[in-house]
Write a structure and sequence with these properties.
This protein has 420 residues and is of the alpha+beta class. It has one domain (4-418): Beta-lactamase. The protein is 33% helix and 15% strand. It contains 14 helices and 16 strands. The strands form 5 sheets. It has a 7-stranded antiparallel sheet with strand order 1-3-2-15-14-13-12, with helices on both faces. It has a 3-stranded antiparallel sheet with strand order 4-7-5. Helix 1 packs antiparallel against helix 14. The protein is globular and about 55 Å long. The chain starts with a strand and ends with a helix. 48% of the residues are buried.
């Protein structure tokens, strides 16, 4: 087994977080990971870990954060609210008339943000190059989305939430570039505005010059994950969850998938064969904010700190109080395999659930109550806690696909709350 080297620092009072991070990185089936936490405007945890023979990996290395990028979408859309250019409760067609075809005319921006647009996937795969900035501005993706018909699981409004793993970012990008005064894509907004303002190094579509800064994703094979989880002693197990916990969660999502039986779902990208396709340069350079943003934990945590502080920090106001409220407002509990409380701005509010909630839903929320934001496939987390004035970012390269509620990072979140 490779020797794992933990680097970085923590402020006094947060030493237990470094101890826990170190133990997890050395015990679990990990590759490389970063952890960064802000409390108020102070960076109180700044850690990273990788093989001791890889000095290139550090706190500024970029990694694909998968669905943690959805919070980047939400923050960008809230910025448009600050600018007086967007209302989450307005119909999408107010900003993008062509979107209203094929039965989508009554959908609001909030419907899209809450995963209730009925477009969890498209009817055809997208050419990766069509998601490059110049192609997006040629409306290649926008035209395809406009021609889609929504497919709801049920006519009941309370059962219309269906996770949009990639499509939410594609739809949001089309709305954003039409509403933004400079007609920027999400990637341009972060590159041209957020990064110069805050020095966050967040990319939605990575330029040639920064490709060498990316740490490649490393999939933990599912069979290996199951085998590790069956080991009886937590002290020796190399995954966070016990086998029975994993099986219970797999059954929950398998039932959800069974409900959509008969639907043929093409891969999101043409030529995509496995999750390792996200290491492909052509996909990395495209704009799929919901599944392909690249960042460091440092950059995410700094951005989250401004949101945790009410929209202002580090000498800048990113969101007006009204826009900040809109981002966090009106969380609605609905089920999409697990119970989620997405706000009109498209971030999830994590909170205590009633006793009748299923075990997977309780696991999703328990230990991170009070946080807002979301998380990414395989492990990443980007969330903030307004009442505690905390911002938390965990960015691993080892993808634990069966850890559907991202327990590895949640353990650190829970320990963080105990520090305050």
């Amino acid at each position: 087994m490779e020797s794992m080297q933990v680097s970085g620092n923590v402020e006094p009072g947060f030493e237990s977080i470094k101890t826990l991070f170190t133990r997890q990185m050395r015990q679990f089936a990990e590759d490389r990971a970063q952890l960064c936490v802000y409390h108020e405007d102070r960076k109180v945890v700044d850690l990273w870990c990788g093989p001791s023979d890889d000095p290139r990996y550090d706190g500024d290395t970029l990694t694909n954060i998968f669905s943690s990028g959805k919070s980047l979408e939400s923050i960008a859309m809230a910025w448009l609210v600050s600018e007086g250019r967007l209302d989450f409760n307005a119909k999408v067609t107010e900003y993008w008339p062509e979107y209203g075809s094929h039965g989508k005319g009554d959908q609001t921006v909030a419907d899209v943000m809450r995963h209730e647009a009925g477009l969890p996937h498209l009817d055809q795969s997208i050419e990766p190059f069509d998601l490059h900035r110049e192609s997006i501005k040629d409306n290649r993706v926008g035209a395809l989305i406009a021609q889609q018909s929504p497919k709801y699981r049920s006519p009941n409004m309370d059962d219309r939430r269906e996770y949009h793993p990639l499509t939410r970012g594609w739809i949001v990008n089309e709305i954003f570039r039409r509403v933004d005064a400079h007609e920027r894509t999400l990637g341009e907004f972060y590159a041209d505005f957020i990064d110069p303002l805050l020095d966050t190094d967040i990319f939605i579509g990575v330029d040639d010059k920064d490709l060498g800064r990316i740490a490649r994703l490393k999939l933990l094979p599912i069979i290996r994950h199951l085998r590790f989880s069956a080991w009886p002693l937590k002290a020796s197990r190399q995954t966070h969850n016990h086998l029975f916990e994993l099986l219970a969660r797999i059954i929950t999502f398998a039932y959800r998938a069974w409900q959509t039986r008969g639907q043929k779902v093409p891969p999101p990208f043409k030529g995509m064969s496995t999750i390792n396709s996200f290491n492909d340069r052509n996909i990395i350079q495209g704009e799929t904010a919901s599944a392909n943003a690249h960042a460091s934990a440092r950059g995410l945590a700094k951005l989250g700190a401004i949101i945790a502080l009410g929209g202002s920090g580090f000498g800048h106001q990113l969101l007006t109080p009204e826009a900040w409220t809109a981002l966090h407002d009106n969380p609605i509990d609905r089920e999409m395999g697990v119970i989620t409380a997405f706000t009109e701005g498209g971030i999830c509010k994590f909170k205590p659930l009633p006793p009748g909630a299923n075990a997977t839903s309780r696991s999703l929320h328990h230990g991170r109550q009070g946080f807002f934001g979301w998380m990414g496939l395989g492990g990443s987390i980007f969330q903030w806690h307004p009442s505690k004035k905390l911002s938390f970012a965990f960015v691993p390269t080892s993808l634990h696909l069966l850890d559907v509620v991202n327990e590895r990072g949640k353990t650190l979140q829970s320990a963080l709350l105990d520090c305050l």
